[in-house]
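Quick entry between incubations.
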Amino acid sequence: MSKSFIKHFQWKDKLLALIVPLLLLILWQSAGPLQLVSELILTPPLTLFHTLADLVGSGELTDNIIVSLQRVVIGFLVGASSGFILGIVMGLSPFLKRTLLPLVKSVQQVPEYAWMPLLIILFSVGELPKIIFIAIGAFYPMVFNTFQGISGVPKNYHELANVYNYKNYRYLTKVIIPGALPSIFTGIRLSLGLSWMFVVGAELFGCDSGIGYMMIWGRQMFQIDLVMSGLVVIGAIGFVLNFILEIIEKRLFSWRRSFEGGIA
Amino acid sequence: MSIEKGTLEIKALSKSFIVDGNPLQILNNINIVFPAGAFISIVGSSGCGKTTLLRIMLGLETQYEGDALIDGEKIVGPGLNRGIVFQDHRLLPWLTVGENVAFGLEKLKRKEKKLIVDEHLKLVGLSGFVSAYPSQLSGGMAQRVAIARALASKPEILLMDEPLGALDALTRMYMQKELERIWLFEKISMIMVTHDVEEAIYLSDKVVIMSSRPGIIKKIIDVPLPRPRDRASSAFMQIKAEILKEFHLETEYPFAYAI
Ligand SMILES: Nc1ncnc2c1ncn2[C@@H]1O[C@H](COP(=O)(O)OP(=O)(O)OP(=O)(O)O)[C@@H](O)[C@H]1O
Ligand SMILES: [Mg+2]
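Done. Structure below.
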């Protein structure tokens, strides 16, 4: 099979992936003129583009994005690192696994948004409840994936470490964590994705800054274009975050590439 | 009597595994001494307990009856005085070939490490592959890296579980020569499990023949031939016939086993 054929094929795939969004955009833009929906309710894409340009120009959008991203980063770091540590601890100690895993699993059954009223009662409306809210979201994928990764390190590798007298820190950093890393990284990706989703949620519950706040404000002022700009920006940033992590992942796990995988 | 370093001794050793709740005897009353500096091969049909015996000597299996001694002391676990080439090559996929070979050299300085790694990769004919990943190697190449890793940490006793099994005939003969050269040079004990009777005779001072269900030592055959050995010599052929005879007597269905 020739290289050019594969390239051609991928190119065609990309084109196919664009067709439906393009059709939707056209439909969206023509919804107003065709009198399907009022333009007051569904801002057409071109108008939206202008609104976005204005928002960027006035610095309002950037400021809100930065505030939201800050919350995401802090919430993610807190939630993911505690998930990481707990995942490692449970992965290493069967005793702690038996004691803690059922608890973590049952608490996980509480829907994320059900935490918010409690968090607001406990911590009022400052930054803290939002950060905790995001951290809770970031925690679960990290704890489960880390745990799974660690307990999935093959017995063979443990034996090898044992043969070469790897203990404690060296054992953890040279064998266990590298062995669990693919799974840990899946955890990081899901965790960051959820953090980004939950920041907007957190900001819907009373706030004076951030992308979520911008959207609430837009709704209250009946500025639908503002609400929709928020949606576009949230989607775009989520996409970029995921994209960056995918690139890092590819670099990090180049060792997984086998002869078969190396063709494309 | 003092025991020379590199001696392994198995005394009245029996080993069972629990299978479906019932003990299944794998090794039965094994008695054998692997003298310091000797090259000894173990042959026997698949499933007769060769790997299990190696794992006991390595210290990975510690539940058994009888004694397994290294230099006169009970084996309580793995130790850096014993090296192993596992039946599966067991390279860590996230480490490069060079890093894998250096796996047992953590305590050394960077420069010393590099020197030893280069030397051993050259030995197994893979000098150009220091920074390749195991996923980029063929099975035979991976096995050779595993041999390099085992040798790099300079064990007194090298245990090898079908170390050349995945090699093509020519590379295999080359590696046999290399193993012999290393063995003569380093004067370490080597214990090798193999399915290749010729390989066993070519390399070993003694060939241990095991038979299965439960695994026992059926016969130990001396190979008193001068080295390097000539595979076509009549003395060689005679020993080969003697060993093969043991296998054919073992079952009515000689084709049923893969040696
Ligand atoms: N951990 C274990 N639990 C239960 N049974 C085991 C275990 N390890 C090995 N066995 C059994 O012990 C027997 C001997 O296994 P072993 O791996 O030592 O054989 P072998 O001689 O090395 O075979 P081969 O030549 O195929 O590698 C086999 O029947 C195997 O099923
Ligand atoms: Mg075996």
